[in-house]
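## Example pair
The file below holds two records. Each record gives the amino-acid sequence first, followed by its structure token line.
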Amino acid sequence: MLPNHSPLVIAEQFGTLEALHPGRIDLGVGRAPGSDRLTSRALGNNTGQDAFPQQVKELLAYLGPQTADRQVVAYPGVDSNVPV
């Protein structure tokens, strides 16, 4: 999902699912864009594979506890700790 969606969007979506179905949601992430390079480019996914580790860290931060230095918060993803 990370090549096609921002970490914030994924955190909000899976945080919502976790709020609706506590303890029944887990999240799998992968590097593949889900299509060929031409389609991936058309979708605007030009971040490349080098961005993947940083995107995973950002996603985990959005799903984790709120910190004082975090300016953008994923609601209801924050503090949901959805298993990744």
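Second record, same layout:
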Amino acid sequence: MAKYSRILLKLSGEAMAGPASFGIDPERVKELAKEIAAIARHGVEVGVVVGGGNIFRGIALAAKSMDRVTGDHMGMLATVINSLALQDALEEIGANTRVMSAIQMHQVAEPYIRRRAIRHLEKGRIVIFAAGTSNPYFSTDTAATLRALEIKAQVIAKATKVDGVYDKDPMKHEDATMYQRISYTEVLTKSLGVMDSTSIAMCRDNALPILVFNLNTHGNIMRMVSGEPVGTLIS
């Protein structure tokens, strides 16, 4: 029995890159698709937001000399590429999916309409939200929070490459301590860098919990929706 009936899964663009730090690794995307499809078959309604870092990192240097708004629009288009790659992998294994884009591109994806997104979820389709919020200066973390609130998700499942939220960077400090549970205010005041401050504040103001877990541990997505103690709960 799943603990959550509707979730918003936030994936980084780097999650699509596999061992490399950029580009799309087809095998890694297939693995992700299998895990996401498994929880959908389990009866969980799944919305997904994917970042664009794996593609945008390659052009980030060029974007440094560009206008910020132009750079952000390029990043949004990178998320559309990742969303289509994930959709293809999901449909290859028989999962019903829809890509809904905040930037209208009718030949590629449906336009994002909140009521239509909820209807897709109710019909058991996995909905991938692309192109952020369509507004510059907002990260894909903020887009994930906004979409989670709009579709009334019970939790944001924030997939990372570490086991949860630590008091300092576990990649640099061996004595870093992981929190099992932490408040939104502590995350903000300690600048723990889990998600950007705008998205944390939005979650706090709307009492939307965030579960931070390690995506690289196989089966963690299923454990998370089943209510097993995985990662760190921010509430």
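Notes on the second record: The longest strand covers residues 6-11. The two ends are 22 Å apart (CA to CA).
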